[in-house]
Write a structure and sequence with these properties.
about 140 residues; mainly alpha; Herpes Virus-1; 2 domains; two-stranded antiparallel sheet; about 5% strand; elongated
């Protein structure tokens, strides 16, 4: 089988591409159902991809990702959507960004909290807080 695949790789790639085009709705529905059933799997895959792209350590397993009912930062309920991310979507946060995706350095928070936190340091977040207090009361 491996020898056949090696000799016919182009055929396999073209066949897979044609299948995806013809069955895009079915594939999309299956992916949405999979995300709803266990969003940790996609979070793990995406984190591994980001770690490789950024040259960060990666040593997580599915068991390292725990999705709480509410965001520990904002207290809002976390909701898994089948399509696009929302403010309430669970998001994997690196507590210390430079340490990468390793056990003890990640926590699931809301997408909104993660967007607010982004990659700013504690001092930068405090500076934003001081600015907002001074300008907005």
């Amino acid at each position: 089988m491996r020898a056949w695949y090696a000799a016919n790789r182009r055929h396999g790639v073209e066949s897979s591409r044609a299948y995806r085009v013809e069955n895009s709705d079915t594939i999309s529905t299956a992916r949405k159902a999979s995300r709803r059933a266990d969003p940790r799997r996609e979070m793990l895959t995406n984190a591994k991809r980001r770690a490789a792209r950024k040259g960060l350590p990666f040593a997580l397993t599915l068991e390292d990702i725990r999705i709480p009912a509410n965001c520990p930062v904002l207290g809002i309920p976390l909701e898994v959507c089948g399509k696009a991310f929302s403010d309430r979507s669970p998001s994997l946060d690196r507590l210390v960004p430079s340490l990468g995706y390793v056990p003890g350095n990640v926590e699931v928070i809301s997408n909104r909290a993660n967007l607010l936190k982004r990659d700013g340091s504690l001092e930068e977040v405090r500076a934003v807080l001081r600015y907002m207090k001074a300008r907005c009361g």
